[in-house]
Amino acid sequence: MTTTHVRGPAIQVRGLEKSYKELRVLRGVDFDVAAGSIFALLGSNGAGKTTVVKILSTLLRADAGTAGVNGFDVASQAGKVRESISLTGQFAAVDEILTGRENLVLVARLRHLRNPGAVADGLLDRFSLADAGARRVSTYSGGMRRRLDIAMSLIGNPPVIFLDEPTTGLDPQARIEVWQAVRELAGQGTTVLLTTQYLDEAEQLADRIAILHEGRIVVNGTLAEVKQILPPAKVEYVEKQPTLEDVFFAIVGAKGGSGADGGGGVGKDRNVGADK
Fold this sequence. Notes:
- By secondary structure, this protein is of the alpha/beta class.
- It has a domain at about 10-90 and about 160-175 and about 190-270: P-loop containing nucleotide triphosphate hydrolases (Rossmann fold), CATH 3.40.50.300.
- It has helices at about 50-55, 80-85, 100-110, 115-125, 140-155, 170-185, 200-205, 225, 245-250; strands spanning about 10-20, 25-35, 40, 65-70, 70-75, 85-90, 160-165, 190-195, 210-215, 215-220, 235, 240, 270.
- A 7-stranded mixed sheet has the order 6-7-8-3-9-10-13, sandwiched between helices. A 4-stranded antiparallel sheet has the order 2-1-4-5, with helices on one face.
- Helix 3 packs across helix 4 and helix 5 packs parallel to helix 6 (about 170-185).
- The longest helix has 16 residues, at about 170-185.
- Residues about 255-270 have low confidence and may be disordered.
């Protein structure tokens, strides 16, 4: 499954639009993701995050605009895109009857890899699951299942991985375990596009953060650049820097708007610190 890396951004999105009948979900989405980085696509429920991921992973066709992954066009070179990516959805896609190792071996065989047992053992070590590899997945905690799910998605060494709200429903300890796994992915050169509605998750993980609101990217920058949108508040001569939560709700409103086809505009898009 390994595909040669290409120069330039690992993901490029320009003018992406998508509607479901009368509901306009995406209204011209633009962003780039640098190779080997973690890019967080942040937004409320219904903002269109999963729709973007489905288009980039060739599961859904855009109405307008272009998108490229690992140098391949998602519309005209879908097969090459699929060879370059892996997708982990909101719920762990693991077989609870099988052991952790058996899950990994099964996927390695389906992808026609040599030495599937060695592939499985390497991933169990990488994700700190070696001691649990012989146990049925039904005995795993939520964090262990999610780590196994991510490990399965890496079989074949895809250069780009999409994580669609990977910590939904997990307890705090399990979330931390998944965060560590995501950091390790980027540390080894994998490009990660992470969708989340958890503001602290984006703060903890992302090299760059984009806020998707009412079908458009309204902010795009590093955490430090995003925080500069709001001036620091001063109370009794002590400077308080705005948090990502402050910025998010200042942009989308305290109630997060009204979904993908919500009310009034947000103002002009901000691509903070990016080349024009």
